[in-house]
Write a structure and sequence with these properties.
The complex is a heterodimer of chains A (about 425) and B (about 140).
Chain A (H helix, E strand, L loop, with lengths): L6 E9 L2 E10 L2 E4 L3 E4 L3 H14 L3 E6 L5 E4 L7 E6 L2 E5 L11 E3 L1 H9 L8 E7 L2 E7 L4 E8 L5 H19 L5 E6 L4 H11 L3 E5 L2 H8 L3 H4 L57 H8 L4 H64 L3 E8 L4 E7 L2 H11 L4 E6 L5 E6 L2
Chain B lengths: L1 H4 L3 H42 L14 H9 L4 E7 L3 E9 L3 H14 L2 E12 L2 E10 L2
Antiparallel strand pairs in B: 1-2, 2-4, 3-4
Classes of the chains: A alpha+beta (about 425), B alpha+beta (about 140).
C-alpha cells in the first residue's frame, strides 16, 4: 500500500525548551507509532520542516497537539469569545486562545478532553476525581456520567510530592465546601513515571487511586483516531478522518490492545513501570471497607443524605444508652428506696418487739398487764401488781427514773402504773 | 487534622452535641446506676442479716388488707383491719394472754412478709383474759 493511502497522525507538543514530535500510521485496529523525535526550541524551523515532510509523505494526515496552558476550565456552556471545545453534551473546556503559533496543527486538544475520553466509559453517578498529570501540571476534574462538576489546574513545578498531594487534597476540600460531595474514587492519568507522587497521593488522601500511564503522543494518536474523539478539539475546521480500506498486516501498537477491562481502554498499565507500587485489578484491589461501601453505594445525593443521617448515629447511640441507663437507674433507685424503707421498718419492728418482750419479762409473775402504750421511745403501762418491789426494780432497770406509782384497790389488790421518762 | 477540617459543620455539631450528652447525662446516669446497684445489694445483705425467719425466705408481699387479715387469723383468735386516714390501716388483734410470744414473733416478721411499716406505737388492753392489741400499719409506697 502506498503512503498516499495511509491515515497518519502527527503529534507534537512542547515541554520546557524542547519540541517533541511523533507520527503513527492509523488503522482500524489501532495505530503504529514511529520513533519520537526531539527538537530544541532553537531548532524550531527544523521541527516545522520535519512536520511538513511527514505531511508530504502522508497526505491523509492530522497534525495533533495538546494545550498545556494552565488557564483552562470546564464550563456548562460554550463561550464564543474564547477557544472552547465540547467534551461531551453541554460540557465545554474553555481557554483564552489557541496558542499553537506558527506550528502546523489541525487538532488541538485540552488535557481535560483527553481525560474524559480516557475515563468516560467508567463514569457513573458516583463522583470521581479524574487527574491528568501532564507537563508537571495536574489537570483535575470532578465528574459523574452526566456532567463535569468542577475543574482545577495545579502547577507542580518546584513542589515536593507531599506539597502536591496537599494541594490535591485542598482542591477536594474546596469542592466539598461548595457541593458537600466528596470524591472517594480517584483516577489518574500520567504521562511519565511518577511513582513517588502516586505513592504520596495515596498516603495523603487515603484513597484508592487507579493509575493509567501513557505518553502524550499515544494519547494524542488516540484522540485523532476517530471523528467522534476528534470533535473535542479546540480547532473546529478539521478535515474528516478517513481510513484506507486495507488494514494490511499492520501490527498495532501494543499499548492500544485491550487490557481485559470490560469498561476501560487501558493502556500500558502502570505496574510495568511503577515497580514499587503494585497496581492490581480494580476489583481485587478493593478493601473490605470499599466493598462494604460499594454494597451500600448510591448516587451522590443519596450519599449526602446518608452521610447526614450517619452523622446523627452517634447522637442516637448516646441517647439510646442514656435512655437505657435512665430506665435501669430509675428501677434500681425505686427498689433501693423500697429496701431502705423495709430495713427501717424491720429495725423499728425488732425494737418494738424487744420493748414488748422486755416489758412482759419484767412483769413476770409479779404483775398482770391491763393496759399499755409502748413505743421505742417509752412506755406507759397499767396493771395489777403482787410483788411491788421486784416489779419496780425490774422496770427501773429497763427505764431508769421512770415513774412507778401504786394504788390499793377496794378488792385488796394493788394497781400499778409506770411511765418511762 | 486536614481530614477533621473536611468534616461537614453539621456533622461536627452532632458529634459535639453527642459528646456533651454523653458527658452531662449518660455517664453520670451510668455512674449513678452502678452506685445504686451496689447500694441495693448492700441493703439486701443488711436485710438478710435482720431476717431470722425459719423456712423459705420470701420477698415481702404487697399489702392487701383482706389477705393480711386472713394470714394473721392463722395465728390469732381474731383480727380486724380497718382503713384509716393517711393511707394507713388500724389492725386489731385479739389473742390469749398466754400467747404473747406469738405476737412478738409476728411483729418481728411482719415487715419481712408484707411491704408495710408499723407505727412506733402499740397499745395493749386486757379484756376477759384476752389481750387486745392495736397497731397502725402503713404500706410501703
Amino acid at each position: 500500500m502506498s503512503n498516499q493511502q495511509h491515515y497518519v497522525t502527527i503529534t507534537h507538543y512542547k515541554e520546557r525548551e524542547f519540541y517533541f514530535l511523533n507520527y503513527a500510521i492509523q488503522t482500524r485496529d489501532g495505530f503504529m507509532p514511529k520513533e519520537i523525535e526531539q527538537f530544541h526550541e532553537s531548532d524550531k524551523s527544523k521541527f516545522i520542516e520535519r512536520i511538513r515532510t511527514i505531511q508530504s509523505q502522508y497526505p491523509n494526515n492530522q497534525i495533533v497537539s495538546i494545550s498545556l496552558m494552565a488557564k483552562q476550565s470546564i464550563s456548562q456552556s460554550e463561550d464564543r469569545n474564547r477557544a472552547s471545545a465540547e467534551i461531551f453534551k453541554n460540557n465545554y473546556v474553555i481557554q483564552e486562545n489557541i496558542d499553537v503559533g506558527d506550528i502546523p496543527t489541525t487538532l488541538y486538544f485540552s488535557p481535560f478532553a483527553i481525560l474524559y475520553q480516557q475515563y468516560k466509559e467508567g463514569l457513573t453517578d458516583e463522583l470521581k476525581l479524574l487527574i491528568g498529570y501532564f507537563d508537571r501540571k495536574l489537570f483535575m476534574m470532578f465528574a459523574t456520567s452526566d456532567r463535569i462538576h468542577q475543574s482545577w489546574t495545579i502547577g507542580t513545578r518546584g513542589l515536593s510530592e507531599k506539597q502536591i498531594a496537599e494541594r490535591v487534597y485542598k482542591s477536594m476540600q474546596a469542592y466539598y465546601k461548595i457541593s458537600y460531595s466528596f470524591a472517594d474514587h480517584l483516577e489518574m492519568l500520567v504521562s511519565d513515571d511518577s511513582p513517588k507522587l502516586l505513592k504520596v497521593l495515596r498516603e495523603e488522601l487515603s484513597l484508592h487511586i487507579t493509575l493509567t500511564q501513557n505518553s502524550i503522543h499515544n494519547l494524542l494518536h488516540r484522540m485523532a483516531s476517530s471523528d467522534e474523539k476528534a470533535k473535542s478539539s479546540f480547532i473546529k475546521s478539521y478535515k474528516k478522518i478517513e481510513y484506507t480500506l486495507d488494514t494490511g498486516t499492520a501490527t498495532t501498537d501494543t499499548s492500544m490492545e485491550e487490557t481485559g477491562s470490560p469498561t476501560y481502554e487501558r493502556v500500558r498499565v502502570a505496574d510495568e513501570n511503577l515497580g514499587d507500587i503494585k497496581l492490581k485489578d480494580q476489583t481485587s484491589n478493593k478493601g473490605v471497607f470499599a466493598k462494604i461501601k460499594g454494597f451500600f453505594g448510591s448516587s451522590p445525593t443519596e450519599t449526602k443524605q446518608k452521610a447526614s443521617l450517619a452523622s446523627l448515629l452517634p447522637l442516637v447511640v448516646v441517647l439510646g444508652m442514656g435512655g437505657f441507663f435512665s430506665m435501669k437507674n430509675a428501677t434500681i433507685s425505686n427498689k433501693l428506696m423500697q429496701k431502705e424503707k423495709q430495713i427501717t421498718a424491720q429495725q423499728n419492728n425488732l425494737k418494738l418487739a424487744t420493748v414488748s418482750e422486755n416489758l412482759f419479762q419484767a412483769m413476770g409473775k409479779n404483775a398482770e398487764l391491763k393496759k399499755a402504750f409502748i413505743s421505742t421511745k417509752g412506755v406507759d403501762i397499767k396493771g395489777l401488781v403482787w410483788g411491788i418491789e421486784p416489779l419496780k426494780n425490774s422496770l427501773n432497770k429497763l427505764y431508769a427514773e421512770g415513774k412507778f406509782v401504786i394504788k390499793p384497790l377496794e378488792n385488796f389488790m394493788t394497781e400499778f402504773t409506770f411511765t418511762s421518762k | 487534622m486536614n481530614k477533621l477540617k473536611s468534616i461537614a459543620p453539621m456533622t461536627k455539631l452532632w458529634f459535639v452535641i453527642s459528646l456533651l450528652v454523653l458527658l452531662v447525662w449518660v455517664i453520670p446516669t451510668m455512674v449513678s446506676y452502678y452506685k445504686n446497684q451496689k447500694n441495693y445489694y448492700q441493703k439486701v445483705e443488711l436485710l438478710n442479716s435482720l431476717d431470722h425467719r425459719a423456712g423459705a425466705q420470701l420477698e415481702a408481699k404487697p399489702f392487701h388488707s383482706e389477705v393480711f387479715r386472713q394470714d394473721a387469723e392463722n395465728y390469732f383468735d381474731k383480727v380486724e383491719v380497718t382503713s384509716i386516714e393517711n393511707d394507713a390501716y388500724e389492725v386489731l388483734i385479739e389473742l390469749d394472754k398466754s400467747k404473747m410470744n406469738t405476737f412478738h414473733t409476728f411483729l418481728k416478721d411482719v415487715s419481712l412478709n408484707y411491704a408495710i411499716s408499723v407505727r412506733d406505737e402499740i397499745s395493749y388492753e386486757e379484756k376477759n383474759d384476752k389481750m387486745i392489741i392495736k397497731m397502725i400499719v402503713k404500706p410501703l409506697s
